[in-house]
Task: inverse folding
């Protein structure tokens, strides 16, 4: 039997910018990439959802603060609450934090500069649907491009996160002033993850790195397993 | 009825914008310290009672205008 192609939705908000790259990368890695418009109140039949990078609603007020109220975000929240796999990249990560699906908040970079470069990352968890193709302690290289990527939470929340092993990726060198160099986190249940680096921009050696494919292919594989489990 | 909301970075939160503004002011020759940069939101409300208006704006702050993890807010109601 041919292995099923999992359906991965990519939500486009007004101001999303990496939705097309995410769709392209998911398709290149053998997922069925499904565009989802932000006004949709119900998600189509999906096995996972990606919230892409960009500047939804112009980053007005705070990054992700307005996108949180989009009909599609409410549908994504429902999907996540039911155990669905959700990956937020950059602005998608900011939206997940604002929506309360992930803890903390992303603040202006400590340097006040927009950082746009390849950064080394250290994998802290390899047992998640988003990182199964990685190994713990592995150093991978994925580009970042953000002005507001400094993840922050009060110390007691950070302690809780560390205790629950919710830190998934750390910067291997100073990047934006994030607490504990945190680059990516997951929720307690492990079905929602957010990260500032852009795996969809690093899926082919021609792009400088193919390490992003480790994350996206892990997600596709996990989504495929879910298709098989329910078929 | 009109309302003004002041949103500030909470104490203890690193505010690089405030630091940059402070440095710029120092370059201009002003002796300043503790600069913090926040936001002002002016609103017009359909309410007659100031207390009712305040309650309404506080709800707006909690739900949208401020993120309690990093920001504090202050509401002013003008007749």
Result:
């Amino acid at each position: 039997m041919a292995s099923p192609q999992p359906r991965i939705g990519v939500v486009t908000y007004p101001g999303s910018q990496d939705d097309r790259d995410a769709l392209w990368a998911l398709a290149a890695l053998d997922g069925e990439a499904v565009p989802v418009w932000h006004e949709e109140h119900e998600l189509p039949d999906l096995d996972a959802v990606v919230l892409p990078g960009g500047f939804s609603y112009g980053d007005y007020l705070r990054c992700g603060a307005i996108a949180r109220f989009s009909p599609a975000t409410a549908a994504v929240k429902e999907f996540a609450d039911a155990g669905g796999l959700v990956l937020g990249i950059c602005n998608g990560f900011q939206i997940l934090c604002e929506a309360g699906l992930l803890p903390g908040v992303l603040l202006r970079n400590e340097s006040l500069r927009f950082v746009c470069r390849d950064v080394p990352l250290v994998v802290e968890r390899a047992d998640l649907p988003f990182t199964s193709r990685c190994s713990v302690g592995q150093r991978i290289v994925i580009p970042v491009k953000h002005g507001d990527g400094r993840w922050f939470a009060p110390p007691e929340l950070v302690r809780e996160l560390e205790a629950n092993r919710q830190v998934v990726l750390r910067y291997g060198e100073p990047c934006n002033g994030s607490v504990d160099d945190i680059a990516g986190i997951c929720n307690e249940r492990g079905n929602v993850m957010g990260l500032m680096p852009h795996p969809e921009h690093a899926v082919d050696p021609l792009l400088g790195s193919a390490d992003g494919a480790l994350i996206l292919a892990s997600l596709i594989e996990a989504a495929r397993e879910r298709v098989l489990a329910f078929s | 009825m009109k309302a003004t909301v002041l949103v500030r970075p909470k104490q203890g939160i690193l505010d690089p914008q405030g630091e940059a503004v402070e440095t710029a002011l120092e370059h201009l020759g002003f002796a300043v310290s503790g600069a913090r940069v926040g936001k002002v939101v002016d609103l017009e409300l359909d309410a007659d009672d100031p207390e009712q208006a305040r309650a309404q704006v506080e709800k707006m702050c909690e739900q949208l205008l401020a993120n309690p993890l990093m920001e504090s807010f202050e509401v002013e109601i003008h007749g």
Summary: Helices of chain A lie at 19-28, 71-81, 91-98, 155-163, 212-230. Chain A has one domain: 7-230. Residues 50 and 87 of chain A are 5 Å apart (CA to CA).
